[in-house]
Every structure is written in C-alpha cells, then in structure tokens.
Amino acid sequence: MxxxxxxxxxxxxxxxxxxxxxxxxxxxxxxxxFALLAGFILIIAENILQSNFNDLATLNSQxxxxxxxxxREIMSLNSKIAVADRIQQQFIPWSTVIADFTKSxxxxxxxxxxxxxxxxxxxxxxxxxRETLLQFQSDLQKLNYFSExxxxxxxxxxxxxxxxxxxxxxxxxxx
Length: 175
Hints:
2 domains, four-stranded antiparallel beta sheet
C-alpha cells in the first residue's frame, strides 16, 4: 500500500505541533485536575486529623484531671494508712500483759485494787510478809512490760501483814 501525503510540509508541521500542544494541554489539565483532587483530599484529611487531635487533647485534659483526683485519693488513703500504722505500733496486747501479771502474783499476796490509766498502773493489796512483797516486785520486773516500778519505803517498814501500793509505768512496746 502506498501512502499518499497531500498536505504541504508547512501545514504538516503545524498539525504536528498542534497535536503535540493538544496532548500537552490535556496532560496539564489532567495534572491540574489531579492536583485539585489531591488538594481537596488533603484538606478533608487535615480537617479529620484536626478533629481527632482536638478530641484527643480534650480526652488527655480529662485524664489529667482524673489522674490528679486519683492521686489525691491515694495520698489521702496513704495518710490514713500511716495513722492506722502508728496506732497499731502503739498497740499493747493488754490481755497478755494482764494474764502475765496475774501469773506473777505469788501466794501470800492479795490484790485489792488494780488501776490502769493508759501507761500508769497502781496496784494496792496486802502481803503476808516482806519477802513475798519483794518477790512480787522482782517477778514484775522480770515481766519486761514495765519501765519503772515504784514502791514507797513504807511498804518495807513492816515485816508481816503489809498493806502495799506499787506504781508502775508500762514500756512503749511495739509489735
């Protein structure tokens, strides 16, 4: 087949340039359309991200407020626990102390009065003789519950049938 070209050389070049220009123009239109579409998508994405960021910032602010509130509650509970711990450290097992006290009372001693006021004890009673009273004092010191046992000299002036009074102070014992 023979190709016949009836168009002049000048017009052929002009058509070639027109065709090239149309292709470039179409490409630029497509590129601009793509850029506009990408711009719209980016603007929408930016708005969504900004909205999510604002939501997260609000949530973070609320969580910080909750965290401060919880921290205050924890500090309050810790101080209450510290107070309870101090109270427990000052606890004296009175049932054990009184049981050991009664076991240390020898035969020949009658206890008439036992006054316990916090850490001060006052024991009043009667002893058959001086040796029994001294043995009772010695036994009380061996208990290791009392820091001080005071006995007036009047307790030791008589040999028999002694009305005595002992003043004792408990130690600050902790568990």
